[in-house]
Write the structure tokens for this entry.
Amino acid sequence: MSINELIQQMTPLYNKYRESKNKITGAESLEIMWNIGDILKSYIEQNKIAPHNLFWSVYGNAEGTKNIAKKSYITREFQNRCHRIRRIFKSKEQIRKELPNLNSFTTFREAMPFFDEGKYKFKGKEREDLLVLLNSEFQPKKILEKIKVLQREKIGIKNPRTQRLHEVEKEKQIFINFYNFIYKISSIGNYHLCLNEIGNVDLDYIKILSKNTSALSQEGLKIFDFNVPNDLKTPWKEFSEMIKKLITQKDPKTRRRFRRLISAERIVRLADMLYGLLSEENYKSFTKRL
């Protein structure tokens, strides 16, 4: 199966999700995303491709595809979430059995670390109690509050002195400032006005910055050499220098600390926002999802 054929399989399901996500239950959203994840899982296993490489290819930003136009607007963040859901649930029947009354997908999304394989996965009574909470008649806001408590208790920093997160506090603030800046530009609604806000920042440079921003989201992703132009202005310059510093460090400890403060999903979303600035077509597509 080619990438185009893969996208053709996923697109109707993706469109269905986008068009109905505010009208359907969380359980129904999970089933649609499980279907997409199942398609991705089959392709990954059959072609022995790394998931993040496939997600780039589907989104149309992969290296080594110079003869391929932009493929789709199914973001890597969404693909990754669907793939995770497929790994969590062996079947859609399991979703129906365990989460029959899940009202809000957002509540499950926030609880996903407790379902993923790994040290935070809940088992036994902890898992049963979490399912009861997600299926409860509480308002989503109340459920989210309880999940946040669980996150602090189970995932929160056990020993702040050994984490040394204060060492990346400056980088965290630079990221937040730049994220808000790009979000504001992306929210203008007019690509030509958006270009005025970008100013003299070269679009090819923004493309490389987008890729290197994405590379910060997890270890092992390809990074691209780039030089920060001397005439680049803040916040572009400040953010670019921060990205270059983090991705080029041989020791991954600082990057891991940074991701404790800024989630991988937020990093990927900023990378996608930057990619949305590269053309009017990209911009219109991305702003539909804001």
Summary: The CA atoms of residues 149 and 156 lie 9 Å apart.
